[in-house]
């Protein structure tokens, strides 16, 4: 675990990246959760009953929290936040720019005019505001995990309920698909050859993986079982699952590398 003294209790960009990198690591656990319904946010919505596709998680994250330009959702985990009133069920979101919790259910509070309104309990924290991160487990029940975040203004947030740890508890997203391109040093018809490597950093498999490739050109034939272009989309690995931490590469030849981007996929954490 990342102990407080390892980062000297001093927030900095390097320390923020260290903390965020640690938080991005997959937290294994039971279930492949995605938001089931979020009708009328802030009223009677139930945040963490999840059944549909992972793109809905990203949309809900964007509705619940202020999202900066270029910010990407990396993980969404079901857990509990400890409070003086007892554990609060909800979702822990980990993005490229913040760690944020939102309660499962909205609770009633009094508005300034005295009316009762329903709101979700939300805790957004950018990594540079995190002073320390500590992880522990129940000595009698090691499967029960706890994570404590301490902010620079000494607020403590303890997350718990990470039970039945298995691969796939943290929901993966398209942000886990990385595309790395390098020149091979060869030429084809006077065009430099490029090697494109598609890597799945998700703890789960991603099948029917498609890249955005509108305008892609090559003078070198690409193995269609690895990458098949149809219109503005390129299907990777024939739609077959790309396993966790696996690399899939294909070569093409053109004047410059093409800016492939992940477009869609089906995630399976079973």
UniProtKB/TrEMBL annotation:
GRAM domain sequence ranges: 59-137
Superkingdom as given in the UniProt entry: Eukaryota
Q: Which UniProt keywords apply?
A: Signal
Q: Which InterPro entries match?
A: GEM-like (IPR037848), GRAM (IPR004182), PH-like_dom_sf (IPR011993), TPD1 (IPR040361)
Q: Does the keyword Transferase apply?
A: no
Q: Does the keyword Signal apply?
A: yes
Classification via Gene3D superfamilies: Pleckstrin-homology domain (PH domain)/Phosphotyrosine-binding domain (PTB)
Indicate the family of this protein.
Answer: Belongs to the GEM family.
The name this protein carries in UniProt is GRAM domain-containing protein
